[in-house]
Design brief:
It is a single chain. The protein is α+β, with helices and mostly antiparallel strands and 346 residues long. The protein folds into 2 domains: 2-129, 3-Layer(aba) Sandwich (Rossmann fold); 144-316, Tumour Suppressor Smad4 (Sandwich). It is 32% helix and 33% strand. The chain has 10 helices and 15 strands. The strands form 3 sheets. Strands 5, 6, 7, 8, 9, 10, 13, 14 and 15 form a 9-stranded antiparallel β-sheet that branches. Helix 1 (16-27) packs parallel to helix 5 (115-128). The longest helix has 17 residues, at 172-188. This is Lipid kinase. InterPro entries: ATP-NAD_kinase_N, Diacylglycerol_kinase_cat_dom, Lipid_Phosphate_FormReg, NAD/diacylglycerol_kinase_sf.
C-alpha cells in the first residue's frame, strides 16, 4: 500500500515531537510504503494531490485539521463543474490523523480526537483495509466535507482567524466570546438570507429573510472542546445535507436559538423555546442561498469571502475514507459501542 502523508506544520497541535511519535505507528503497518510531504502555504495540499489517481498512491493521509482535509478533497475531486467526475475507486482513498483545533470530520467518522490514539486506530484500519464511501457537499464550484453557511458562523470564524493571526489560540472560550460579540452585531444588522432546498425524496423547504442558515454534512456539526454540538440529529455521511437556521435573533427565543447552535442545552430542556425560532431540514440534495447584500460565507471552518448567492449540492458516495466499521456518528453511539469497536479493531 502506497501512502502519501501530507502534514500541515501550522496545524494547532502539531509539532516535531508529535510527528516523531506518530510516524513509527503508521510505518509499522505491514506492506505500507510511506512518503511524507509538508505544506508551506494555504492551498498547498490541494496543489500536491491535484490530478492524482490510484496509480500514484493508494491513500492520501492528512496530518492536520479540517482545513487540510478540505484542501485534499478539493485537489482529489477537482472542480465541481468538471465534465467527468472521478470515481472513488479511481482516486486515492483519504485517511486522517487529527491535529487541528476542532477536527470535526475525523471525529464525526468515529476517531479519537488525540493524534496518538487516532494513529493507532488508523494503523489497524490500514492493516485490515477497513474503508467506506461517504457523501460530500459542494458549494458553487468547490467541495466541502463538514459544513458551510452564510451569516453568524462565518462571521465568528473570520474573527477567530484574525485573533489567531495576532497570536491568540482558538480555544472554546474564545469561540464563545467571539460568538456573543457577533450575535450582538447581527441583532442590530442581521443578514437576510433566502433559502430554497429540495431533499433527495423530493420534499421542499423555503424560508425568506433568515438571519442565520448553514448546511452540515456531519453529525455533530462541530465540537465545543470535547462536547459534540448537534443541530441535525439524523444527519450522517450516508445521506444528504442537514439545514439549520434561526428565523429571528431578537428576544429570548432568538438568543436561545443561537445558543443551541453552539451547544448549549444539550439535554433539550429548552426545546419549546428553540423550536419557536429554529429551522430544520434533512437529507437535502440541493440548496440555494441568496442575500441581497454580500455576506461572509464559510466552508469547513475556513472563511471563503463574501457572496450574494451560493448553490449547494450533496454528492453521494463521492470519496473513499478509512473509518470505523459503524457508520453512525460518534454522537449517536453509546460509550459501550465505541469501546466495543475500538477493541475489535485493536
Amino acid at each position: 500500500m502506497r501512502v502519501l502523508l501530507i502534514s500541515n506544520p501550522n496545524s494547532t497541535s502539531q509539532n516535531a515531537a508529535l510527528f516523531r511519535e506518530v510516524l513509527p505507528i503508521i510505518r509499522g503497518v505491514e506492506g505500507l510504503r510511506l512518503l511524507t510531504q509538508f505544506t508551506h502555504y494555504p492551498g498547498h495540499a490541494e496543489e500536491m494531490v491535484r490530478g492524482m489517481t490510484r496509480a500514484d498512491y493508494d491513500v492520501i493521509l492528512a496530518f492536520g485539521g479540517d482545513g487540510t482535509v478540505n484542501e485534499i478533497v478539493n485537489g482529489l475531486l477537482g472542480p465541481v463543474d468538471a465534465e467527468s467526475r472521478p470515481s472513488p475507486q479511481d482516486i486515492p482513498a483519504l485517511a486522517v490523523i487529527p491535529t487541528g483545533s476542532a477536527n470535526v470530520f475525523v471525529r464525526a467518522l468515529g476517531f479519537p480526537n488525540t493524534p496518538i490514539e487516532a494513529a493507532h486506530v488508523l494503523a489497524r484500519m490500514l492493516d485490515r483495509d477497513i474503508r467506506r464511501e461517504v457523501f460530500l457537499g459542494t458549494w458553487n464550484d468547490r467541495w466541502f466535507a463538514v459544513n458551510a453557511g452564510f451569516g453568524l458562523d462565518a462571521d465568528v470564524l473570520a474573527r477567530v482567524d484574525r485573533a489567531r493571526e495576532k497570536g491568540f489560540s482558538a480555544t472554546p472560550l474564545r469561540y464563545l466570546a467571539v460568538s456573543f460579540q457577533a450575535y450582538q452585531r447581527a441583532r442590530i444588522r442581521p443578514p437576510r438570507i433566502n433559502v430554497r432546498a429540495v431533499s433527495r425524496s423530493g420534499d421542499t423547504f423555503k424560508a425568506d429573510n433568515v438571519p442565520l442558515m448553514f448546511t452540515s454534512n456531519t453529525n455533530p456539526w462541530t465540537f465545543l472542546g470535547p462536547l459534540p454540538v448537534v443541530t441535525n440529529p439524523r444527519n450522517s455521511f450516508d445521506q444528504g445535507l442537514g439545514l439549520f437556521g434561526v428565523s429571528d435573533l431578537h428576544g429570548i427565543d432568538g438568543l436561545v436559538g443561537v445558543l443551541h447552535l453552539f451547544g448549549v442545552d444539550r439535554r433539550h430542556w429548552l426545546n419549546k423555546v428553540t423550536d419557536a425560532r429554529t429551522l430544520h431540514f434533512e437529507d437535502a440534495a440541493e440548496v440555494d442561498l441568496e442575500c441581497p447584500k454580500p455576506h461572509r460565507f464559510q466552508a469547513d471552518g475556513e472563511s471563503e469571502g463574501t457572496f450574494t448567492t451560493i448553490h449547494i449540492e450533496s454528492v453521494p458516495n463521492a470519496l473513499e475514507v478509512f473509518a470505523p466499521i459503524d457508520p453512525r456518528p460518534a454522537s449517536q453511539r453509546t460509550i459501550r459501542e465505541v469501546l466495543r469497536d475500538f477493541i475489535r479493531i485493536k
